[in-house]
Design a protein that fits this description.
Helix content: 55-70%
Shape: globular
Number of domains: 2
Number of strands: 0
Structural class: mainly alpha
Radius of gyration: 25 Å
Order of helices and strands: HHHHHHHHHHHHHHHHHHHHH
Largest sheet: none
């Protein structure tokens, strides 16, 4: 009996809890096959612990900024491993460049410093994203051969380099004053909600918020929960399910499917990429609100657009406005004549396509949108319609249908890795349509069809309905909001048929 008592009094070990400490440690170490994303279970647990400490530090501004920055760097480590050193390099270099540039009074010296910032950021971007692409292009032009290098693409490098560039360019233009504290700038660049897949947060919008007293109003909390709910539903329920169970199958082997199935696959991809990326943006904006920070809107029901111009005012707004303010205007915008304006639009979208990836398909996608923007601008000027004019009635309905199908056509080139795959899909759509197979598709892909219909219906609902849902969510007590999230997590678990899919825009 005494021996048993001594045994019972002994402290419990890892084995008593059936926990392998090695396996537990591996969970917190970078895994290239499972980058950390908002819809993963691990992030939910990490964020729960993060929130507790964050609240404890709410009255200690510097300590809170330091803690969030450290967590953000860990978040990026879980996404890209030790490539987080690139994030540190960009942060430190642009912080020092901006301060040195601000002290310069000679115009050519200021240009030299901002050029250095461009070289650092775009140099990193070119090496990690475009080395193999440029090597292949050079080899094809010279008739030589090129063996692709094994270069890892750090997650979100396009986003944090563009975000940091907005800071140095704004300082160069004297639109903002440079920060004097490295911690503040590190907090801005690395803030984890938008770090790996946007939105691209401008320094002029975010910097004034950094040292403000922490305050989360009832409206901010309610809107944050609502956006997280919507984003998680878009990403983990709609996007992941239709991608795994239909869209990927069609795009990987378009010749195996009829034209009507290929067309439905294109519609599915249009919904998938929207739900995936706007869902991520919603979660990022919602998380920022829960932490007391405001991000600008990044998506505004883009498929409701009646023109390509309107589409780019609604789609990936943080990127389109970045390209407009820092590239299109720098090229001359509309200040150097009509022909130059059209050319500037095409060049801007050409580079916007190249920003998405090192592929001629991305270039073609950007060029198609650039030409469409130029044609629409020419038509508006030819008909004498003022800037911002929008059609109404049946004309707008037709405009929405035409714009949506043009965008879908462009998505074909965006999604395929090469030109031949895109042409194979188009060939099936135009030469092997067979609409009589639609009932068979419907019988085999019932859940996919249901989610696609649900996704598009929710997308095209009037904006006032979304505002009403937001107000009802905000009015719920804390328990009610928690119940909503629990229900959604349960639905996600039930719908999940494979490992959580990474965000599409992780590749950018």
């Amino acid at each position: 009996m005494a021996r048993n008592n001594r045994t019972n009094d002994m402290p419990m070990s890892w084995s008593d809890w059936n926990i392998d400490p090695v396996r537990l440690l591996e969970v917190f170490v970078y895994d290239p096959q499972a980058p950390l994303i908002f819809s993963s279970g691990l992030f939910l647990w990490l964020f729960a612990g993060f929130a507790v400490i964050y609240l404890l530090l709410r009255h200690h501004t510097t300590a809170r900024l330091l803690f969030v920055t450290a967590f953000s760097y860990y978040f990026y480590y879980k996404s890209s491993g030790w490539y987080l050193l690139l994030l540190a390099l960009v942060t430190v270099s642009d912080f020092l460049i901006a301060r040195r540039m601000d002290r310069c009074r000679t115009p050519w010296k200021r240009k030299a410093w901002v050029t250095l910032s461009l070289m650092v950021n775009l140099g990193l971007l070119c090496y990690f994203k475009y080395t193999n692409f440029l090597g292949e292009c050079w080899a094809s032009l010279t008739g030589g051969t090129f063996t692709a290098w094994d270069i890892f693409l750090p997650v979100g490098i396009s986003f944090f380099t563009f975000q940091s560039l907005s800071y140095t360019l704004d300082v160069y233009r004297r639109q903002i004053q440079p920060l004097t504290c490295l911690l503040d700038y590190a907090f801005y660049v690395s803030f984890f909600p938008q770090l790996v897949a946007g939105p691209i947060v401008r320094a002029r919008d975010f910097l004034p918020q950094i040292r403000q007293p922490l305050f989360v109003s009832r409206e901010m909390f309610g809107r944050g929960v609502f956006l997280i709910f919507c984003g998680l539903f878009k990403k983990a329920v709609i996007s992941d399910y239709i991608s795994i169970n239909f869209v990927e199958r069609v795009f990987d082997n378009p010749a195996l499917y009829s034209g009507v199935e290929n067309l439905l696959g294109v519609y599915g991809y249009a919904l998938q990429i929207y739900c995936d990326f706007s869902g991520y943006s919603d979660m990022a904006i919602g998380l920022a609100l829960l932490l007391g920070f405001h991000f600008n809107e990044n998506f505004r029901s883009p498929y409701k657009s009646a023109s390509v111009t309107e589409f780019w005012r609604r789609w990936h707004i943080s990127l389109s406005t970045w390209l407009r303010d820092y590239l299109y205007i720098s090229l001359g915008g509309n200040r150097k004549g009509k022909l130059r304006q059209y050319l500037n639009l095409i060049i801007t979208m050409f580079l916007g396509g190249l920003w998405h990836g090192a592929s001629w398909n991305f270039v073609l996608w950007g060029m198609l949108h650039g030409v469409a923007l130029a044609v629409h601008k020419f038509w508006m000027q030819l008909t004498g319609r003022p800037k911002g004019w929008q059609s109404g009635g049946i004309r707008r309905v037709l405009g929405v249908l035409v714009t949506f199908h043009f965008v879908c056509f462009c998505w074909i080139f965006f999604r395929h890795a090469d030109f031949s795959g895109a042409m194979a899909m188009l060939r099936q759509i135009f030469t092997d349509f067979h609409p009589e197979l639609f009932p068979q598709w419907l019988a085999g892909y019932g859940k996919v069809c249901l989610l696609m219909v649900l996704g598009f219906v929710l997308h095209f609902l009037p904006d006032r309905w979304e505002q009403a849902a937001l107000q009802k969510t905000t009015a719920l007590p804390l328990v009610g909001k928690a119940v909503l999230l629990v229900i959604l997590i349960y639905v996600v678990i039930q719908m999940k048929s494979a490992d959580i899919q990474p965000f599409i825009y992780f590749q950018f």
